[in-house]
Amino acid sequence: MAFSGDIEIKGLADLPFNERNMNPGLHGLDIKEALDTRDYRILLVANKYQTGFDQPKLVAMYVDKKLSGVATVQTLSRLNRTYKRGDVEKDWTAVLDFMNDPASILVDFQKYYSAASLPTGTDPNLIYSLESKLDAAGIYLESEVDAFASFYWDPKRKKDSHFQLQKYLGLPCDRFKQQYLTALNEDNSEAKDTMEIFAKDIGSFTKLFEFISQIYDFAGDAALEKRYSFFKELSPILWNIIREGRDSQVIDLSDVRLSHYAIHPSGKGIGSLEPDTTAEFEPAYGAIGSAASHDP
After folding, report:
1. Which of 278, 279, 277, 285 is nearest to 121 (CA)?
2. Which of 135, 240, 267, 282 has its CA 20 to 30 A from that of 115?
3. Dihedrals φ, ψ of 36, to 5°?
4. Interatomic CA distance for residues 17 and 7, integer angstroms
5. What is the C-alpha separation between 217 and 246, in angstroms, rounded?
6. Alpha carbon 275 to chain centroid distance?
7. Enclosing H/E stretch for 170
8. 55 and 78 in contact (C-beta within 8 Å)?
């Protein structure tokens, strides 16, 4: 079993679940190395190894999550590795997909296996629009961003000063937590969605800044650089608050019983990777700042 980080389930275990304690039989052996032995033949993955995982022995994949865009190609292409050792040769692959429509999978592949164009570029001004949106939320003050940046960029700051950084994020985190928990307690879905979208926009800002700053010179605009460092430390704390808030909501499933279960083939076919038209890619971060909250 492979997944990143720790997962805590209240009332089920005293310790968080992670790759190490969920795979006790590996005795510290790396999962990638274990899968290359004859002892382990199945790997259960949650949002991991979709890219950069090259195991030529893989022949079958079971998919139970929605895939779209480049993630479709990257994920399913984990099987596209040849393998031959002695008389044993890999000559087939199979994907059993419980979630995705074959037509949508074909469309995603066609974008990358045919002629493609990028009709428009990424607008550098998007970063300023997102900055204004985040500032207007009132979760943090300009003075707090300045104080954090002064300490963060202090050349005398020690590299292991992570906990000292946290104190500069205390007030913004308290404001966010108070508003988010109030929304949950009052069952105010609109307010809850607003707070979760704010957290998403914080992450979008850091990704967009990292991307655009490589091709566009923001020299002279210290405010963006300050917010980038501030948001990068703030983002994981906000998501911890959201996860803790969601976990505190009790959902009674005691009366739920599984009565029927069946698997039916939805069809099969062969699709061409050479469509009649040229695929057009959306500009990177074209719809940034327009996140929507989803029902967990």
Report:
1. 285
2. 267
3. -90, -5
4. 5
5. 40
6. 30
7. helix 170-185
8. yes
